[in-house]
Amino acid sequence: MDDADEDLLTRSVSEPAAFEPLVDRHSAALHGYLVRRAPAAADDLLSEVWLRAYAGRGAYAAGRGAARAWLFGIARNVLAGHWQQAARGAQGPAGATSPVGDPWQAVDARLDAAAVGPLLRRRIADLPAVERELLLLVAWEQLTPTEAAAVVGIPAGTARSRLHRARRRLRADLSSSAAALTPLTGDVS
């Protein structure tokens, strides 16, 4: 049986080779997260995630959550740093900055349901940032609500209630818009 991620991470402090299975297990998921958020920089960002995780492995506390959530938290911080650096580089001559951040505009191009995509994109973009991040971590990255809570740094109960609120809002928005979407989808039932 494979060693648990938490055990490997803890053991890697004294046995650096114990870190290697973590890279094998989680690189694809972390890369997917980064590709969806910063496609052009994902490979470099993933390298930075692993460098920071390896350097910070001694600070990992198993009691604070799963190793997977800890790794996604590092990925989120690396991504935030990437966007901040891009924002500094986007400053114009008068010091005004272009809005650089989560490339939400590109998400609808990857949605499967083209007819619902624009509406869904608007509704998700309108969610408060933490609710949107929780929803995407659970839906896209398949983290549990507790793991997603650890990534964004809030209590698990708070994350569950915010996730429920976000889902309820989206469900209400989409069901109230169903009549408007019917002509778009060709559904005449």
Automatic annotation (TrEMBL):
Domain RNA polymerase sigma factor 70 region 4 type: from-to ranges: 120-170
Gene3D superfamilies: 1.10.1740.10, Winged helix-like DNA-binding domain superfamily/Winged helix DNA-binding domain (1.10.10.10)
Domain RNA polymerase sigma-70 region: 22-88
InterPro entries, alphabetized: RNA_pol_sigma-70-like (IPR039425), RNA_pol_sigma-70_dom (IPR014284), RNA_pol_sigma70_r2 (IPR007627), RNA_pol_sigma70_r4_t2 (IPR013249), RNA_pol_sigma_r2 (IPR013325), RNA_pol_sigma_r3/r4-like (IPR013324), WH-like_DNA-bd_sf (IPR036388)
Source organism superkingdom: Bacteria
Molecular-function GO terms, alphabetical: DNA binding; sigma factor activity
Keywords: Sigma factor, Transcription, Transcription regulation
Family, similarity comment: Belongs to the sigma-70 factor family. ECF subfamily.
Protein name: Sigma-70 family RNA polymerase sigma factor
